[in-house]
Structures are given as C-alpha cells and as structure tokens.
C-alpha cells in the first residue's frame, strides 16, 4: 500500500524501513504532524500512519477521505486523538498497535518513580557541578509503601508485578477488575480509597471522556499529604493546573509526568533555543520535585520493532482482506 507517514522522526524511519523489508509497502515520510494545515499532504495516499499527537478530528478526517485515504494506522496503543464516530461515518478503517511492549512503559514508570524518590535528577546535576552535598536529597524506601494503580490493564499489571518485587502493598482501581491483577496481590478498592491510602499513585488508564481530569483538585485533595503522583498514560487524565496547586500547597509531594495535556506543540521537538509560551508547562519545569520526560515511555528497541511490524502488518491485512484484528473498537461496542 502507498502510505503517508506523519510525525516521522529519523528513528521512526529506521524502524519502519527495517520492518518494511518483509512487507513491501511504499512508505513516504512527512515530518509534520497531521493537522488541518497539513492534511493536504495525504492526498492520493490510500493509507496514512500517525502517532499520538496527530489530530484526527472531523476537520481532518473529512478532507482526508476526500483525498482518497481509506485506512488510518496508529503506531501506538491509545486512540484518544481519533474522532471514531466521524471515522465510521466516513467509512475509514482505523487500526492500532494494542500491545507492543508493556514492559517499556512499565519500566519507564518505575524509572521515574525511583529517580523522583531518590532525587537522581538533582544528584546528577549537583555532582557534575562538584557539589557532593546530600542536603535535600532524602528519599524513602519503596519497600512497605503502598502503590495505587489506576487502570490494571496490560501495563498496570506489569507495574504491579515490579512493585510486588520491591515489597510494596498494591491497590488497584479499575471499572473492569481482573483476576490476573488479583493474582499479583492487587487489592481492588474504590478510587477515593486508593487515593487516600497510597504513597504513590500511578495512572495506567486510557484517556476517555470518563478519565479526562480524573485526577482533579478534588482527587488531589483526597491524596495523602506528600504522596507522589505519576502519569505515563495520557496527559489529560490529570488536570495539570490542579496538580500545580497541589505541589504549591504541599499536598502533592512530587509529580512525575511522561505525558502532558498540551504536549502536542512541544514533545518530540528540540525547542531548546526558544521561549516556552505555555505557562503551565513552564511552571511545571521550575519545581525541584517534578520530573518530566517527553512521552518516551514507549521508546525502547523492542517496542519500536514491535510497533513497526504490527503497524505495517495491520495495513497489509486491510489491503489484502479488508479486515484487521487490530481495529480500534468503536465507542459503545
Ligand atoms: P489496557 O487497555 O490493557 O488497560 C487499560 C486499563 O484501564 C483497562 O483495564 C481498563 O479497564 C482501565 N480503565 C478504563 N477506564 C478506566 C477508569 N475510568 N479508571 C481506571 N481504569 C480504567 O491498556 P494498556 O496497554 O495497559 O495502556 C494503558 C494506557 O497507557 C494507554 O491507554 C495509553 O494511553 C498509555 N500508553 C502510554 C505510553 C507512553 O509512551 N507514555 C505508551 C503506551 C500506552
């Protein structure tokens, strides 16, 4: 299939080109994100390949179909950036990579928690300046602490397994509890109880209308004073302004983010010579107890190989059979 690949970086090209030796698609790479302004680039391509910050709302989907595109392949698991109702009305197939390496995301989550707890980011900067003092670097043992996992799906369960190994107590909140998590000693409790009892709250649910700002001022107000909040799911699960207020009041002890609700204009780009115009992001970056990575939790060799192979296989299946096992589920089904 002739496929326009949006938001493509050199590393995307390397992995997609590598996997494409087994598929033989015609891949044309575009660096810009897919938006109303760039949708014209897709004209004449039956397939497009997009990532987390590409925009697939009605304003983009309509010109996309008018230009002849019939298939959208997300090279990610989340699909909150696609207007599925409009896609279905227009008859566009939407496929994704439901699971690639849950270990990649879970391990990055653990890396953020360890770094933030033991202040590795600050220690590293200090030591490079010849400052070997320990003042302000006091951490806490993870052993014996309570970790609250919001969303006990594939990634949440890997997180549970790892923290079980640390000797943590595990609480879970999920509208669809599962026995695999229970077998990992996850105790399911209502969300408020999880917030009240956890020393660390880590988010692994999808972004949906129900989970948008799930962690708002009210939820933060229920958390233990000084607790750590971690988000490697999707930015808008947290009301970032409420999190900043929580940090300022001391209710939140620390915050680790791999995702940010307005990340689209910033993440994945080198903007080091520019002023950050987003005051919320700029404020976040001033706190000593906040650690931000730019949506890199997925970014391992294993995950990139799996994403490339599944994405190109999804498009081959659509082309050859008109169907694909990795279709994005339509709302309400
Ligand atoms: P999954 O579908 O296996 O698990 C999601 C779980 O969240 C399910 O058990 C579901 O029942 C639960 N859930 C749904 N609504 C909820 C709610 N209101 N409250 C609590 N839990 C709820 O998905 P998986 O693979 O574990 O991924 C989770 C999320 O991680 C994805 O939706 C995606 O947004 C994010 N992600 C982030 C990446 C990164 O690089 N930072 C990479 C891959 C995924």
Description:
Strands 8-7-6-9-10-11-12 form a 7-stranded parallel β-sheet, with helices on both faces. It has a 5-stranded parallel β-sheet with strand order 2-1-3-4-5, sandwiched between helices. β1, α1 (10-20) and β2 (26-29) form a beta-alpha-beta unit. The chain contains 12 helices and 12 strands. The model has no long low-confidence stretch (mean pLDDT 97). The two termini are 29 Å apart. The chain has 2 domains: 2-100 and 300-321, NAD(P)-binding Rossmann-like Domain (Rossmann fold, 3-Layer(aba) Sandwich), CATH 3.40.50.720; 102-292, Rossmann fold, CATH 3.40.50.720. It has 333 residues and is of the alpha/beta class. It has helices at residues 10-20, 58-66, 84-90, 102-118, 120-128, 154-166, 179-183, 191-197, 217-222, 240-249, 279-284, 301-321, and strands at residues 2-5, 26-29, 47-50, 71-74, 93-95, 146-150, 169-173, 186-188, 200-203, 227-231, 252-257, 290-292. Bound molecules: 1,4-dihydronicotinamide adenine dinucleotide.
Hetero groups in this structure are: 1,4-dihydronicotinamide adenine dinucleotide
The string of secondary-structure elements, in order, is EHEEHEHEHHEHEHEHEHEHEHEH
Total of helices: 12
Largest beta-sheet characterization: 7 strands, parallel
Distance between the termini: 29 Å
Segments where pLDDT lies below 50 for 5+ residues? Answer: none
Strand content: 15-25%
Mean pLDDT: 97
């Amino acid at each position: 299939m002739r496929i326009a690949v949006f938001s493509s970086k050199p590393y995307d090209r390397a992995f997609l080109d590598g996997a494409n030796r087994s598929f033989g698609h015609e891949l044309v790479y575009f660096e810009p994100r897919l938006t109303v302004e760039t949708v014209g680039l897709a004209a004449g391509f039956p397939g497009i390949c997009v990532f987390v910050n590409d925009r697939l709302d009605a304003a983009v989907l309509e010109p996309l179909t008018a230009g002849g595109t019939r298939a959208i392949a997300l090279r990610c698991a989340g699909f909150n950036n696609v207007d599925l109702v409009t896609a279905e009305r227009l008859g566009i197939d939407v496929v994704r990579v439901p699971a690639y390496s849950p270990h990649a995301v879970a391990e990055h989550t653990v890396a953020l928690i360890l770094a933030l707890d033991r202040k590795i980011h600050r220690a590293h900067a200090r030591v490079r300046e010849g400052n070997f003092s320990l003042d302000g670097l006091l951490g806490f043992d993870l052993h014996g602490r309570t970790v609250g996992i919001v969303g006990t799906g594939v990634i949440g369960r890997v997180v549970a397994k790892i923290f079980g190994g640390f000797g943590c107590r595990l609480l879970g909140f999920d509208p669809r509890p599962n026995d695999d998590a229970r077998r990992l000693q996850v105790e399911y409790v209502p969300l408020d109880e999880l917030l009240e009892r956890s020393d660390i709250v880590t988010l692994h649910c999808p972004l949906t209308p129900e989970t948008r700002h799930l962690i708002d001022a009210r939820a933060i107000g229920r958390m233990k004073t000084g607790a750590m909040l971690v988000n490697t799911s999707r930015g808008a699960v947290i009301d970032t302004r409420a999190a900043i207020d929580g940090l300022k009041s001391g209710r939140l002890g620390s915050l680790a983010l791999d995702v940010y609700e307005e990340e689209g204009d910033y993440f994945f780009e080198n903007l080091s010579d520019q002023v950050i115009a987003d005051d919320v992001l700029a404020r976040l970056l001033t706190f000593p107890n906040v650690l931000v990575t730019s949506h890199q939790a997925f970014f391992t060799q294993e995950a990139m190989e799996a994403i490339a192979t599944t994405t190109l296989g999804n498009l081959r299946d659509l082309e050859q059979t008109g169907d694909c096992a990795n279709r994005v589920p339509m709302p309400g089904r």
